[in-house]
Each structure stands twice: as C-alpha cells, then as structure tokens.
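Moderator note: this is an archived Q&A kept for reference. The question asked for a predicted structure of one protein chain; the sequence and the answer are reproduced below.
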Amino acid sequence: MRPSDVLALETMYFADEIRDPAKELDRMPKGQKFQKRELDMARSLIDSMTVKWDPDQYKDTYRQRVMDLIEAKRKGEKVVTEGDTGESAAVLDLMQALERSLHRSKGPKASKDSKGSEAKDGDLAGMSKDELYEKAQELGVSGRSKMTRDQLENAIRKAS
C-alpha cells in the first residue's frame, strides 16, 4: 500500500484552543477511586457499543449532490441555488430546558421564591423566565416558546 492510498484524519488544535480544565471547571474530580465492578461495567458498556468501522456503510451525499448540480449545469439545465427556506424551526435554549426540567423535578417546593412564600401572579417581575414560561403554559398562552422574558410577562398579565 502506498502512502497516497491512505486517508488520515487528525484533529489539530491551536494554542488558544487548548485550555486547562482546572481553570475552566469549578470542581475538578481528584483522586477518584473506582470499584472493579464499576470499571468492568464501563468496559462492558463501551464494548457493547463498539463496532468494526466499515467505510462502505457511509456515502458522501453532499459530494453527490454537488456532482449532480455540476452535471445539470453542464447539460444546460437551470440550476437554482437559492430559494425560500420556509419557516425556521424554533431554536431551543438548552439551558432554559435544563432549568425547567430541574425546576419540575423539585416538585411543589420549586414554585416558591427564595423567601419560601408562594410567588404571586402580580409579582411576575420577580419570576425567572422558566417560571414565566411554566405559568404561560398553565394559562395556555400560545407562541410562548418564541417569546422573550418581557413578552412572557405581558402575555401572562393579559391572560390572567
């Protein structure tokens, strides 16, 4: 096999992309000890998900679409490269979703503010966006997933 017959893939990092985890993370695990059964379970899980890589299973569909466009243009067909992309999907805020999930997992206590009293409908300014979202959901406010915090507050006031 000649060197030109081999495909090599490497991830290269520039100096500014390499960071010290101890400086980036508040708490770094140190001196962790694992039991043999935990390590065996981890190895077993990894082994069960490991398969032999077969490059024939993967096709370069992007390259094929480009080649099809080139061929169409060569034949004199009109190639349309821009068009209406339609309505974009709602972008989910991962942190917001995680906070909502955490809020729900805490149960009834989560609806209380930091002083321990129930948050009042009139006290919307003191509620987080997640709490406002849940309140809007309870009130059946439509379009709430695309609303800003202020818009949620206004929509809740109107719906109440």
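Archived answer notes: The first helix runs from residue 21 to 24.
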